Amino acid sequence: GARDVARARAAGGGGRHQRDAAREQPVGAAAINATPRAMITSAVREVCAAHGFSGNIAVTISVPEGVALAEKTFNPHLGIEDGISILGTTGIVEPRSLAALRDSIELEIRQHAAMGWRGVVLTPGNYGGQFISGHFHLNGAPVVFISNFVGDAIDCCVREGFTNVLLVGHIGKLVKVAGGIMDTHSRTADCRAEILAAHAALAGAGAKTVREIMSSVTTTAALEVIEAAGVGDAARASLAAAIDDRLRRRAAGACDIAAVVFDAERRELFRTSGAMQLSGNWGLRMSKGVLYGVGTGPGDPELLTIKAVRTIESCPVIAAPQTADGAMVALDIVRGAVDLTSKTVIPVRFSMTRDAERRTAEHASLVRELVAHLDAVRDVALLNLGDPSIYATFQRIAPDVRACGFEARAIPGVPSFCAVAAALERDLTPEMSSPLHIVPGGYETCAAQSAGRGRRWS
Predict the structure, then answer these.
(1) How far is C-alpha 303 from the chain's CA centre?
(2) Spatial contact of 330 and 382, defined as CB atoms under 8 Å apart
């Protein structure tokens, strides 16, 4: 159907991933990242809807001279061959000279200083902006997009009298700061693998691990090697200390400065010392993840509430019930209304047993898995058919999640009995004085007890 349109492929200068480089798309697929794919899909769906078309559409992306252009980029190094990759986070290009870009960044910093701010958050670009919006309560604090000009931005903050500077960025950019590189553009300096390898070695990694890191083409792939070697925690601590040292040297004691670093899935990897205290100095609060129990309604994606859709869109992690045969009904409902391409999906499997001990153990296992994401400051949407207050897993585990120090909030959904009544054009309460009893099917004792006490129909 039209819901499945836009299976994009590259041709005539569009690149393909030819080896596992821990990229967004699988090996052999067109090198078109998630955001442009979503934009293409949205545009095609809009045209299909306007013309009442419900078939399938194949989209071919052609880039004139893309093969030649790709030779001037890092694409071959990243395992992208036969053309150039299609990237982007907004679809908006702002052509500027480097000098003009740097001047505009410094102008924005000066404007915030003139408005009386003494604390500022710096981030290279849109990925950082997305992470900040999902992981911080800014309380009005300014955020400045600094591109690759880490050193110049810090210098400007010092000149303008800022006392608190928080740098937030992806590991691919900020790992360079650990090596003293303050212009993070790849044409100026790279050394990401070398820096990661050095800190892995300091953490105790052996020669084999170091060689694997050096052969990794992305920081994501290198981090996986480090984790597999069992030195992840120590390596992150070493990197945090190095970044902390480099930032403090650059600021030369003129301001308090710290950093928060995240990975490709917008999960916090580490923060430098003083990040929490520094952010609190001007009212910026680092969040914990929040668990949302989201009601998906009775089955029709159009009956998802606006709030449910917005909540699911904002959560990087989706926990969805899965039956023994692998079906994920609630997730299928959501897919009809929300693009889940970039989401981490956790299958939630329960045996539906009446054995209380086994049920308690299954709930405890789920809580541990969810808390691991919440602790990494990743909001989780736990999908529940119907409404999360009616026989929902969410209500069973919410107290335990709260006991672990995290928020758990319910997002209502349309319950099935209301949808059935609407479909049958039935009035559930024809008399204002009549009580309404909802008796689950299969609960014979409850049905017998409630017979005659209110209006029942089936």
Answers:
(1) 25
(2) no
Mean pLDDT by 10 residues, the chain (458 residues): 42 51 62 81 87 86 78 64 71 65 91 90 91 77 94 96 94 96 90 96 96 94 95 94 96 94 88 76 66 95 94 92 91 94 88 78 90 85 94 91 89 93 90 82 54 48
CA–CA gap between residue 59 and residue 11 (Å, rounded): 10
- Cα-based distances in Å from 195 to 172, 189, 200, 224, 266: 11, 12, 9, 15, 21
Phi then psi dihedrals of residue 114, to 5 deg = -65, -25
Please tell me the distance from the alpha carbon of residue 458 to that of residue 382, in angstroms, as a whole number: 30
Q: Read off the tokens for 290.
A: 């929040």
Contact 244, 278 (CB under 8 A): no
How many angstroms separate the CA atoms of 317 and 291, rounded? 10
Joined tokens for residue 441: 């099917």
Residue in 248, 245, 241, 251 with CA at minimum distance from that of residue 153: 251
Q: What's the DSSP call for residue 158? A: H
Half-sphere exposure of 20 toward its Cβ, with a 13 Å CA cutoff? 3
Q: What tokens appear for 430 in the block? A: 């024809």
- As a whole number of angstroms, the distance between CA 136 and CA 115 comes to 22
Q: Which two tokens stand for residue 104?
A: 């505009």
Q: CA 238, CA 168: separation in Å to the nearest integer?
A: 18
Q: Count the residues in the chain.
A: 458
Q: 305 Cβ partners below 8 Å, 6+ apart?
A: 295, 297, 411, 412, 413, 414
Helix runs in 203-300, H state only = 207-214, 219-228, 232-251, 275-280
C-alpha distances (whole Å) from 392 to each of 7, 398, 411, 434 are 36, 10, 12, 27
Q: Which contiguous run of DSSP H or E holds residue 313?
A: helix 306-314
The closest alpha carbon to 160, from 139, 144, 171, belongs to 144
Task: Give the pLDDT of residue 389.
Answer: 92
Cβ burial of 185 (10 Å; 0-12, 13-18, 19+) is middle
Please identify which residue in the block is written with the tokens 């009809």.
336
Terminal-to-terminal C-alpha distance of the chain: 34
Whether the Cβ atoms of residue 333 and residue 298 lie closer than 8 Å to each other: no
Listed residue (253, 152, 239) closest to 144, CA to CA: 152
Beta strand 317-321 with 344-348: parallel, antiparallel or unpaired?
parallel
